[in-house]
Amino acid sequence: MGFGDLKSAAGLRVLNDFLADKSYIEGYVPSQADIAVFEAIAAPPPADLFHALRWYNHIKSYEKQKASLPGVKKALGKYGPADVEDTTGGATDSKDDDDIDLFGSDDEEESEEAKKLREERLAQYESKKSKKPAVVAKSSILLDVKPWDDETDMAKLEECVRSIQADGLVWGSSKLVPVGYGIKKLQIQCVVEDDKVGTDMLEERITAFEDYVQSMDVAAFNKI
């Protein structure tokens, strides 16, 4: 699998096609997967590859936060469509932690005692690794939900927003903030599990209440 050479026009076209129905390389939030692919690109994609260019400009905005994004950066060949051959060489130059022989011997032959000790240590390592609790990545998001005009029923608008329920989504406090001409926007907090809920999904669900909602923007996004 892989995008191929992302410094070439062919590689960028593969990336553009891959992002036609995706916001990120993996999952629903920016991660180390996006940083790995972003850093493999020599320059912004051309304007005709608009899916890739949109993604490139979005990930570029995380330049100062890239070290704090979730996930573990892998070889470039680990990302992308499965039917494209990886020509970057990254897939063979890097190894996953699970592939590293922590207790390997440099000798071609090893004694039965050394072999047994190595296998015991490997078993202990695998057992310890399997017992590690899974870390659930979460984010706190502040949303601005704007009505059509000053006659919009803001109580009903908030009721609609809070009616959205999803695994990994918890609504928090809210307030109405004046924006001018008697119009107020709803500013509402929520906490999401990154692997389950993304801003794209929230925007789609919230703007579906088109009788009340004109638009939704992310006012603040912080990792927890």
TrEMBL record:
Transmembrane segments: none annotated. EF-1 is composed of 4 subunits: alpha, beta (alpha subunit of the eEF1B subcomplex), delta (beta subunit of the eEF1B subcomplex), and gamma (gamma subunit of the eEF1B subcomplex). Interacts with elongation factor EEF1A1. The gene is Eef1b. This is Elongation factor 1-beta. GO terms for molecular function: guanyl-nucleotide exchange factor activity; translation elongation factor activity. Signal peptide: none annotated. The lineage of its organism: Eukaryota, Metazoa, Chordata, Craniata, Vertebrata. Belongs to the EF-1-beta/EF-1-delta family. Keywords: Elongation factor, Protein biosynthesis. Catalytic subunit of the guanine nucleotide exchange factor (GEF) (eEF1B subcomplex) of the eukaryotic elongation factor 1 complex (eEF1). Stimulates the exchange of GDP for GTP on elongation factor 1A (eEF1A), probably by displacing GDP from the nucleotide binding pocket in eEF1A.
